[in-house]
Amino acid sequence: MKRRNFLKTLGGGSLAALSSPGAADRFAGRQEKNAGGSAPLTVSGHRDPRIEVNLDHIVWNLAQLKKRVKVSVMGVVKANAYGHGLVGVAKALEAAGVEALMVGKLREAVALREAGIKCPILNFGPFDRHDSDEIVGRNISQSVFTEDAAYLDETAARLKRTAPVHIDIDTGMGRTGVLHDRALPLIEKIASFPHLRIEGVCTTLTEDPEFDKEQLRRFLDICSAANKRGISLGWRHAASSAAVFYSSDFYLDMIRPGITLYGYYPNARTRKEDALSLRPALKFSAAVIFIKDLSPGESLSYLRVFKAGKKMRAATLGVGYSDGYPFLFGGKVSVMIRDKKFQVLEAVTSNHVMVDLGDDREVRIGDEAVLIHPDKGPGLTADALAERSGVPDYKILIGLSPLTQRAYSEARLSS
Length: 415
Prior knowledge:
The chain is α/β, with parallel strands linked by helices. The protein has helices at residues 3-8, 14-19, 23-32, 55-69, 78-82, 86-95, 106-114, 132-137, 149-159, 183-192, 209-228, 241-244, 268-273, 382-389, 393-398; strands at 50-53, 72-76, 100-103, 121-123, 141-144, 163-170, 178-179, 196-202, 235-239, 254-255, 282-294, 299-300, 306-307, 312-317, 334-337, 340-348, 353-358, 368-372, 405-408.
């Protein structure tokens, strides 16, 4: 029997279901429906990789930010909350008093509304007229920077609602947004739509500290000109995590922290200063699934990428780059098993990682191997791994597979 036909026999067409467009999102969504403490609804093997998220740490990080900036906070939960799990994190942030949430795709905003999130949610991602019913009907705030905002106005009129929007102004990032020298006419146009409400106006900084000052000047000039015309702009926001540490001039009415919510600083300088005593929130682990002894000259993995130079033991872990463990970690980082650190060998494949046990005889099949550790002591936080591998910490976190089982601690709201 051919492999494809064999797979079709497992569960009555499950292959087609998993290969259809959006199947992974739907599967991940089923996992997230129980997020926030209880186990996911999907079945997971006991030796599959596992992610544990300490929600209390995320609440702590939010509280530290609020103490510093003393303005509203829009928590960035795009990209599956930087790998931590969209719904579980969003629920904890909302309960802890975050004023708004930001996502990068409409489907993320819809998932949050379906999970019962009630605070303002800004979809910073694209939309077209076919999305307008979903956006307006679910009271999702939409980023706009063209006259396509008219689609939202038309839909809001039909649904007898008022749709909140945030006007995105390009002050130098060059990615999206209405160019700053053309922004005022668009602001006036959007303000004239009877069924739209300008909930906010925003820009994205380049994180070049000197140029960011020029971006801020351009942005504030536009806001001032709009105010002189009697236009209410709602929240003015520009600062992501990096700008929080530049100057309070960037705070405006609201900040948009991402990586700092999850316990990491935006660069080496702020990490060294540790001004907020941030607490990393995520632990990523896998199981030892096989152990073997190697003689000198024996090889491992494709193209014999690793050859033993002496007698040694090697452990195979049930995790790989399909789970989000970066291929570039091979030969550069360590994992922790039974409170000892062991070097990852060059053999990182789709579903397996191999580890040098040396002459250790204590490690057993079934043991937990910690790949990312939330405590700084073991040196396995995402930023510590980033230093050794050259893979940025936010890419490590965001790259974690949404299909990996996530478990959530209870968040204490009195930090």
